[in-house]
Amino acid sequence: LLKMNTLNERANQKTNQTSCAKRLRAYALYGPVNPMNDVLSNEEVLALKDEDLIGVIRNIFSRQHHISYYGPMSSSDFVKLIGETHKCPETLAPVQDANPYQYVQPEENEVIVVPFDANQVVLYSISNMGEQYNPAEVPAATMYNEYFGGGMNAIVFQEMREARGLAYSSSARYMQPSDLKHPIIFQAAIKSQDDKVIDALAAFDEIINDMPVSENAFKVAKEGLISSYRTERTTKSDILSAYETAKKRGLDYDIRKDIYEQVQNYTLDDVVKFQQDNIKGRKYTICILGRESDFDKAGLSRFGQIKHVSTEEIFGY
User: Does residue 243 carry a pLDDT above 80?
Assistant: First the structure.
């Protein structure tokens, strides 16, 4: 039953534009072999045996691991309980790298096109310039994200949808990695009509590199950001998740403290400086999922070298 459900799910995913878009994004980030398409073939799925899957579960605690606990039990009682019930081999095997895939860093702009028969196009612009996580830059990056791509009042939404009518939805973020193994990624996303792809790309390129400046939009973004940090709380089991994330980033404190304190003193000039120093002039991998026959191929070539990828390549089956 598990095998047949897997095969049926694969068949349904290929007809789902959202699923295709997620896998196209992974293709752009990691390249032809990535976490979304490095999967067993249909023949390999059918050849799996029950004991193969059960064996994976049974061997989990034979590798190095740590235990986190949230609950009413005291620390001494919990340690005692673990000592009595959590039986492991005396020697634990090292943990395998859970993410052997590496982000690609293209030297030139590239346009990846995947055919999908729909009137709406999904478009990602992804940029990896190799920047590493730097806690000193996080407050400014957070303020930039809120001002430029944060929500309905942000520059991206106002320009792309409200002012120009080129997108059903749009967003952009300077994305901090969850650990020190991965670089920072700048990502812009658009959902538009097939016949507006070129105009949408041109408009996005314009506002990303020559960011519109609005004191009123900045004021709204700053007030909204301060308000959200003032009222947000990390409680219960979320404390463990926050601790683990901070540790992976090399931190021993909550970075939100820095953000909250520094954002209150920011001006619009600080956002402009961050955009000039970190966003302007980046190289992009542009991913387009839609009806290829409606695209202006000559127009697309202005944004980078075009590469055609099939749905079989982005799904891996």
Answer: yes
